[in-house]
Amino acid sequence: MIDFTGKVALVTGGARDIGRAISIGLAKQGAMVAINYYDNETDALETKKMITDNGGKCVLIQGDATNFTDCVKMGETAVATFNQKVDILINVAGGLVGRHLVADMEESFWDLVIGLNLKTVFLMTKATLPFMNDGGSIVNFTSQAARDGGGFGASAYATAKGGVLTFTRSMAKELAPRKIRVNAVSPGMINTTFHNVHTKPEIRQKVAASTPLGREGEAPEVADLVMYLASSNSSFITGESVEINGGTFFA
């Protein structure tokens, strides 16, 4: 049993897909959840309603996780709303943006993808640490792409997620004196908007068919793993990246 009663969790990209499943899961287990979203207020309000209709506590925080000032605002708002420091930081914000071969890739696109997937984790970690309790937990999102180089045209995304993997391990060492554990999850093919937009249906079907468990993963399954890593149930795990891909890749 995971119990987050009395804990404050801050989730970037927490309004839809995997982020939504995490926000709902944390609230269901008693956490007070600060949900960051960038521009989709409709999704954010729907997520909030799903939580509050079931008696959960949350606050929505609009902000750009690539902007340090906005990141600080997220921490300040979480503390002011719930009148206590943050215990859990989940860095979900990120995305593929598009598929481009290096030969055709603009420098601005590279910078955008690296910023969205790697810089956000650095900025949110830096901004949240002053607002975070010792003994807290950080869970970052890397990807199977960090291990296998990603799909066709995803080199920028794969590189950024590889950086998240390395940053996670660095932070696990750096924050150990404060007893803050830092881990990551590494999803493979999960049934989300990400793949609805960026992956052709025939490719998804092929990957699912070749996956040992015979299907794509679902957002709540990833959320369950994240909650385990954020909880005291994983109290002796830090610096780890856990693969969740149905058996398509073994680290």
Give a quick precis of the structure.
With 251 residues, the protein is an alpha/beta fold. The chain has helices spanning 17-28, 41-52, 68-82, 107-128, 145-148, 155-174, 193-198, 201-210, 219-230, and strands at residues 8-12, 32-37, 57-62, 86-91, 132-141, 181-187, 241-244. It has one domain: Rossmann fold, CATH 3.40.50.720.
Can you characterise this structure?
It is a single chain. By secondary structure, the chain is an alpha/beta fold. The protein has a single domain, classed as NAD(P)-binding Rossmann-like Domain (Rossmann fold), CATH 3.40.50. The chain is 45% helix and 18% strand. It has nine helices and seven strands; from the N terminus they run E-H-E-H-E-H-E-H-E-H-H-E-H-H-H-E. Strands 3-2-1-4-5-6-7 form a seven-stranded parallel β-sheet, with helices on both faces. Strand 4, helix 4 and strand 5 form a beta-alpha-beta unit. The longest helix is centred in the middle third of the chain and has 22 residues. It starts with 7 loop residues before the first strand and ends in a 7-residue tail after the last strand. The mean pLDDT is 95.
Order of helices and strands: EHEHEHEHEHHEHHHE
Q: Label the CATH architecture.
A: 3-Layer(aba) Sandwich
Pick out the low-confidence regions. none
Structural class, judged by helices and strands? alpha/beta
Question: How far apart, in Å, are the first and last alpha carbons?
Answer: 28 Å
What is the helix tally? 9
Strand order of the largest sheet: 3-2-1-4-5-6-7
- Overall pLDDT score: 95
CATH class: Alpha Beta
Gyration radius, rounded = 17 Å
Count of structural domains: 1
